[in-house]
Amino acid sequence: MVKEVLKLLLEGEAVSTPRMAAVLGASEADVEAALEALSTEKTLLGWRPVINPTAVAENQVDALIEVSVTPERGGGFNRIAQRIARFDQVRTCYLMSGGYDLMVVVRGANLLSIATFVAEKLSTLGGVQSTATRFMLRCYKESGFLIESAEADEGRPAVSP
Amino acid sequence: MSSLSHERFLADHVRTLPRSGIRDFFAIVQKMPDALSLGIGEPDFITPWNIREAAIYSLEKGRTSYTDNLGLLACRKAVTRYIERIFGMSYHPEKECLIGIGVSETMDTALRAVINPGDRVLYHEPCYVSYAPGIRLAGGIPVGVPTYAENQFSLNVEDLEKAWQPGTKALILNFPTNPTGGVVERERLERIARFAEEKDLLVLSDEIYAELTYDGEHTSIASLPGMRDRTIFLHGVSKAFAMTGFRIGFACAPHAIIEAMMKVHQYCIMSVPIFTQEATIEALTHADDSVAEMRASYQRRRDFLVRRFNAMGLPCHLPQATFYTFPSIAGTGLNEHTFATRLLQEEKVAVVPGTAFGPSGAGFVRASFSTRYEKIEEACDRMDRFVGKLLQAPLEAVR
């Protein structure tokens, strides 16, 4: 059941408990238990709606920051990465292969707030060698959802062979 | 000149051909734009992007010419490789494969290539609407063989034997079946193959829903010993790859049959649009994951819809393939046409009367699950209400 619930969550086809129960032909209690198990094992981290960033652009600026750091003996990149990830402004933090070490996605109310975060918090952390900030200008696809899609299933004949 | 007098210009065999029952019902549904439709016989998914992009790229490259009458050789190679990989049959791409306009035109081409006037052709029903008219248009005599709900609309060889008469030349198979979701398991298929050999029948096997098999494994009759040489294997990309609008079907058969089909196809169609053939190459070589995703989604919807039908009092077998359910509405006291019409009028839900697919569809309706889950759920709620009233009415009459 846990696997089946996880599959539904990943496909985004049915997210409410009653609907998942209806799709799977299971009881709501079983679905709740599966969700609980997924949370406990930290597979399911939380719930967030997927918002079109353009629709809230007046109050929100996103940036992708490439961070180069000095790995530590014994801990590698983990300690510095975890430290960076703890800031509220940081939405996503990945260790990367390639030309820099950490990819950090931050969100702020405006350009200045992100500049302040980079200059005063991120760059000053011990172990951070350099940062390169790329502001996101326009969103075309967010978490698997196309922002402006001309695709629609309307126009299909209502009855066909 | 009144329109009536134009009738005299029509060919007799066309004038007497009935219109598809689906078309009549579609005319009613079309007038109700807010109806929820479970009457749709095509995927609700849009063609995977990599396939659409391949079509766009083809046009960008200026690929706008005719192709070989048989189809682009690269497309035929992709088709034969795919058939070998999925179905286990081996065909020569240059001699034993033809690309047509969907399975409908390819089936019509096949029938016209092999049927002489007066030849009898067996087909099982309920079935896709075009088989009997297609046989008739080719000059043959269609002989319907019933299939039954009690064995999930599979085909009994005994029923084939009963329907056979001297002068029978061919047998059309469509497993998995539109509209019932019926399949034929291997053992039963082997008996049908022996029957075809005994009676020296050519088999035209439309296997368009093969990839949408949820339980068990699909076996093509052409893969059985001795059957490749007496089978025209028909398939296409419409259903599994959600490419109905691309209109691509294909036939694989021994060279002499493909050569005969090519003559019919050449004089009627010339060749299939080149960019949809190039998109088909992409589909058959790089879209297995997309097909698997769509199949998983259909399967969940199937399970839900069948559960709901049985719970609301419409007995429904679990279709092992396709995206159709075929619930019995006999217990409601209505015939399938009245049921579908009243359901549409009273609850604005469209299903297709079973008799649109042949007389054995009496007492059934076809409800498709190639519709978004939320819509299926809402349609089920409305049907539940409608059926509840019908099932309650006889009880109240008794009281």
Characteristic terms for this protein:
heterodimer; A: 161 residues; alpha+beta; Alpha-Beta Plaits; 2 domains; 4-stranded antiparallel β-sheet; extended; B: 399 residues; alpha/beta; Aspartate Aminotransferase, domain 1; Aspartate Aminotransferase, domain 2; 7-stranded mixed β-sheet; 3-stranded antiparallel β-sheet; 13 helices; 12 strands; 12% strand
List the helices and strands and how they pair.
The complex is a heterodimer of chains A (161) and B (399).
Chain A: H1 2-11, H2 17-24, H3 28-40, E1 61-69, H4 78-85, E2 90-95, E3 102-108, H5 111-122, E4 128-135, E5 141-142, E6 145-146
Antiparallel strand pairs in A: 1-3, 1-4, 2-3, 5-6
Helix pairs in contact in A: 1-3, 2-3
Chain B: H1 12-15, H2 21-30, E1 36-37, H3 49-60, H4 73-86, E2 97-100, H5 102-114, E3 120-125, H6 131-137, E4 141-146, H7 157-163, E5 168-173, H8 186-198, E6 202-206, E7 231-236, E8 249-252, H9 255-268, H10 274-286, H11 288-312, E9 324-325, H12 336-347, E10 349-350, E11 352-353, E12 365-368, H13 373-398
Parallel strand pairs in B: 1-10, 3-4, 3-5, 5-6, 6-7
Antiparallel strand pairs in B: 2-8, 7-8, 9-12, 11-12
Helix pairs in contact in B: 3-10, 4-10, 5-6, 5-9, 11-13
Description:
The complex is a heterodimer of chains A (161) and B (399). By secondary structure, chain A is an alpha+beta fold. Chain A has two domains: 2-40; 53-141, Lrp/AsnC effector binding domain/regulation of amino acid metabolism (RAM) domain (Alpha-Beta Plaits), CATH 3.30.70. Chain A contains five helices and six strands; from the N terminus they run αααβαββαβββ. Chain A has helices at residues 2-11, 17-24, 28-40, 78-85, 111-122; strands at 61-69, 90-95, 102-108, 128-135, 141-142, 145-146. Chain A has a four-stranded antiparallel sheet. In chain A, strands 5-6 form a two-stranded antiparallel ribbon. In chain A, α1 crosses α3 (28-40) and α2 (17-24) crosses α3. The two termini of chain A are 36 Å apart. Chain B is an alpha/beta fold and 399 residues long. Chain B has two domains: 11-46 and 289-391, Alpha-Beta Complex (Aspartate Aminotransferase, domain 1), CATH 3.90.1150.10; 63-286, Aspartate Aminotransferase, domain 2 (3-Layer(aba) Sandwich). In chain B, 43% of the residues lie in helices and 12% in strands. Chain B has helices at residues 12-15, 21-30, 49-60, 73-86, 102-114, 131-137, 157-163, 186-198, 255-268, 274-286, 288-312, 336-347, 373-398, and strands at 36-37, 97-100, 120-125, 141-146, 168-173, 202-206, 231-236, 249-252, 324-325, 349-350, 352-353, 365-368. Chain B is globular. The relative contact order of chain B is 0.17. The model of chain B has no long low-confidence stretch (mean pLDDT 95). The A-B interface holds A 7, 11, 13-14, 19, 22-25, 151, 153, 156-161 and B 20, 22, 25-26, 29-30, 35, 37, 39-42, 44, 46, 128-130, 178, 293, 296-297, 300, 303-304, 307, 350, 352, 372-373, 377.
